[in-house]
Structure prediction request, 360 residues.
Amino acid sequence: MQDIFPHGETQVLNTDYKKLRMIDKIKNLSGEIEALKATTEKEIEELRIKYLSKKGEISQLFGEFRNVPNEMKREVGQLLNELKNSATDKINSLKGSMQAEASSGNDMDLTLPASPIKLGSRHPLSVVKNEIIDIFTRLGFTISEGPEVEDDWHVFSALNFPEEHPARDMQDTFFIEKNPDILLRTHTSSVQVRVMENEQPPIRTISPGRVFRNEAISARAHCIFHQVEGLYIDENVSFADLKQTLLYFAQEMFGKETQIRLRPSFFPFTEPSAEMDVTCNLCGGKGCNVCKYTGWLEILGCGMVDPNVLKSNNIDSEKYTGFAFGMGVERIAMLKFGVNDLRLFFENDVRFLDQFKAAY
Ligand code: DAH
Prediction:
């Protein structure tokens, strides 16, 4: 047969063919290895033996490498080395992910207690307000509310503050509009008026709420604070009823041994008017720097509802009498918890608020 490649082309063809076979094999193997999956140690070891052991497929290819013509050795050798490296990497990564999975399972200790969830607590002012409400609802008082933005009538005029009367200056008012005056209520006594507008006696109600005064903020005063107003109107309500109700309140709030005293005072809406002190709950009445060594602490204003107020609100002042009182929630909370700066209640510092958790 005539040699169709008289100048040695057969040799060239052979060389290319061998090279191509090797390259195909390498490519096939590398695709196969890339797609390997194993989940147990045994499976991984089997794969290692299949590809990387002395008799493994890659070693066999290295054996065949001897037959690769010299001029191709460089290229094929490089591919073979890459194949070996990527197979080693693959086996290692299979081992790694299996170990990671196994150890993540082992780390889980189901008997460990859960990390604590930080619970919030009621604000001390809410605690005290709720306690005041509890005490008076036990005595049959209902709860009534009114708006914070009020008119002159409900805050002043209906409560017997004559126009231009200096008593209006007792409370520095935030006005929103003038003529007619719209303002932020300076006391919750305004809710008394709203109740009387809508109900006839017997009335027995308390009105907790926020009030506003144009005052400089200090340890003892704030421009926003809270009050609870009380109102009791019926036939034959007397000052003795007022006194006994307030004594009950003081002893429930500050302890059974607490005593009260009433000092004459002035409010336009009550006649007679008084301010009430309780025995200092810190020193038990002996005298300390909180009670300024008097043994007494002032906690509220009160009195018999002025007949003018009843008349302004269409309640028969010949038939009915009543008493009223008003107290500051911050003041009571300060005394009850021994807090010496009112501003702390408004800063919402968790370190402060947390301290009221244990007790309530
Ligand atoms: N409204 C008064 C104030 O804010 C407190 C007060 C005093 C209310 C006497 C009353 C009362 O009902 O009878 O200073």
Observations:
- The longest helix spans residues 70-107.
- The pocket of 3,4-dihydroxyphenylalanine is lined by residues 187, 189, 229, 267, 270, 301-303, 324-326 (CB under 6 Å).
- Residues 1-13 have pLDDT under 50 and may be disordered.
- The chain has two domains: 7-104, 124-356.
